[in-house]
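Task card 7
Instruction: Convert sequence to structure tokens.
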Amino acid sequence: MSQPICKITDLIFTRFELIDLDKQKEFMNHFGCQLAHETDNSIFFKGSGSNPYIYVASKGDQNRCIGMAYKVDAFEDLQNLSSNLNVEIVDNDEPGGGKKVTLIDPEGLEIEIYYGMNEIEPEIKTSPKLNTGNSTERIKSNSPNAEDRVNELQRIGQASDEWQLEDDKWIYNLRTSVKRVGHTAINCKDAKDSIRWYSENLGLLVTNYIMGPDGSDHMGAFMRADTGDTPADHHILNNVQFPGEGDFAPYGHAGYEVSGSVDDLMAGHHHLKSVDKYPHEWGIGRHLLGSQMYDYWRDSYGFTHEHWTDGDFLDSSHPPEKTPFRDTIMAQYGPFAPSSFGVSVPNDQLEEVRKNPRLDQVVAMVEKGEIPMNPEENK
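Output:
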């Protein structure tokens, strides 16, 4: 394989156009992000990590995902993109500074590549100690270690005081703390072309090829950043072969890592559930590919956002694997994914979409050959 034009090292933020920014500000606060900057026409939300913001939305005439922004560690990468793809290097006029180029991927998404964006001081949140079965055995043998919690009571937030009665309704006030956006999933008309584009231009490595029932690898991939010997997340991008005909939104979802442990994820789940303003999409469970614990929610506009924690790390030596389609949907544990998963539709259409077969039922039909999944068959 020839060398890529550049090698991105991280996902910085996602960018949206929305009709009503106030509605989205409310959701992002409930979701566990912090307002970092605001203008008359744009909102910027950050996490507890070092990126100055992880979500950007601008006021517009429609609701859509504009694209994603990635980071490179060398200005030479921007120069290579500029000379090879005939794009201009410009100053970033939004918070964080630095320089950038903007590309258009095969699905029409704007892909911004940044160099030199200023980082902020991350908030350090420690994970609680967990007493497990192994801890019990050590305690019984009178040999506890530093990982064991002895004479320390496990309390999350303000414990039961986090539950407040508001208008005869119990609200769980402890929200999750989002650290960063770690990956996105995009729906592709031709996943193999998308994989090629991100590999050749941004240097992404394939972690898993998604195999169709006919044994071909046309159904998509999970791709990660090539950071050499430094381990990277299992995937920074999931390219999904979207079956069927007609127009569809390329945005599938964005995955946000929570700052702490499973407790952060669980707190976020119960806060959003008690608020009862946003549709729950899928979870709680543990993925097979990437191994993350996950919980998916829809915002006011029907875009899906994931809380996740405890994902796999891989360095560049890890070879790509060929993975059956079912492994993308069938979790290690958790509920079955609804038919709406990965589809960006307004929330008032959600009930109708969910009348379709669940995704585990789709997997069964694909494996039986009842649904064509090859893009050539869908033309």
